[in-house]
Amino acid sequence: MTNFSTYNFSNQKALIRVDFNVPLDASYHITDDTRIKATIPTIQKILKDGGSVILMSHLGRPKDGPTEKYSLKHLVGHLSELLGGIKVKFADDCIGASAVELSASLKPGEVLLLENLRFYKEEETGDEAFAQKLAKLGDVYVNDAFGTAHRAHASTAVIAKYFPKNKKMFGLLMESEVRSAEKVMHKNEKPFVAIIGGAKVSDKILIIENLLETATDIIIGGGMAYTFMKADDGKIGKSLCEDDRLQTALDILQRAEAKGVCIHLPSDSIIADNFSADANTSTSPSNNIPDGWMGLDIGPNAAEQFCNVIKHSKTILWNGPMGVFEMEKFQHGTKAIATAVAQATQNGAFSLVGGGDSVAAVNQFGFADKVSYVSTGGGALLEYFEGKTLPGIAAIND
Ligand code: AMP
Asked: Ligand 1 pocket, 299 CB below 6 A?
């Protein structure tokens, strides 16, 4: 595979697939620029080498072609600022005349942003002719969009076949995402604990099943823990429960036992009389929650028990909060876990946090720089840990 860091981009037009799918407010201001910031080092390396950069991305889910709301032109000003004030050119169509002309006249050191790829339905259908038109814009293809690596779209996977092996590669962000995910899944040092939380068992079954093959411990918290409690004849009041997953939960517990993987469920819970920030609360064993009450966070004993496992681990994967961390009364469990993961990291463990709300939690509690790696890929990271081949990765590796 071609190595991005040692490749010389001098006089090359690099066509980079980035993930600029950022949230915008009603006045089209970016409310979280994490994804743009994450790819700046890749852009800068190419410019420093004396190359030029053509950026392509999707934004949102436009249904019927070009829509003001989903135009990437809203990102031009901020992108220019993040690149130290250099002018960012904009093509109002990703494959039309403006894209062709602007990319053809692009000079070393210049940056061009193409309009939203998803204004063409061909992007998501993985259309070959569309991918080929995009490919013609650049001399070399760089994929830095880990967040869309699980999609077999024209710009994330299909396009790679139009570049020879020495002209396609991962960007710096993609490289570090893949490296840290591989380290956890395939090169982990034991003990390896996977902390899985969040709302639903159904979203996390595949990942838990796959982790049974490699983890030594799996901590299950958040709303999904109550399906496991009920499956084991526990009383869970009106806690979140997926009744159609009770057998799945039992199967997971049995398979874990057979494989010698220790599953840790919360012994106690913070319970509430309704789902609200000012609900009445109490502490209860997680398998004996009174009628009319629901578990909205792990309790103090469970937090201590989980933190002990985390502190003795050498590899940590964290996906999903331990409770309804958006409400102050139910964020102690998630905070305690974040603290333990940070401590274990300081003591030499490798910790990867990824997949949606656990990333929001470490950011909210100020722990993002105290863990080894915070992934930018939600769905992509989950699919990686489910054991699936990600088309965006395979297209470069093949
Ligand atoms: P997920 O996207 O599956 O990782 O789920 C994250 C969501 O799960 C967050 O919005 C949490 O508020 C929610 N959550 C965590 N614990 C619970 C719980 N015990 N009951 C209900 N929702 C929960």
From this structure: no
Which residues are within 8 A (CB) of 249 and not within 5 positions of it... i.e. 6 or more apart? 201, 227, 228, 231, 232
- Which CATH class name applies to 13-174? alpha beta
pTM over 0.85, yes/no = yes
Q: Do the first three CATH levels of 13-174 and 188-385 match, i.e. the same topology? A: yes
Q: How far apart are CA 364 and CA 357, in angstroms?
A: 10
What are the domain boundaries of the chain? Answer: 13-174, 188-385
- For ligand 1, the distance from its centroid to the CA atom of residue 325, given in whole angstroms, is 8
pLDDT digit string, tens, across residues 177-225 = 999 999 999 999 999 999 999 998 998 999 999 999 999 999 999 999 9
In which element (H, E) is residue 359 found?
helix 357-364
* Active site annotation includes 118: no
Q: Whole-angstrom Cα distance, residue 116 to residue 73?
A: 9
Q: Which CATH superfamily groups domain 188-385?
A: Phosphoglycerate kinase, N-terminal domain (3.40.50.1260)
190 in Cβ contact with 315 (< 8 Å):
yes
Whether 379 is catalytic: yes
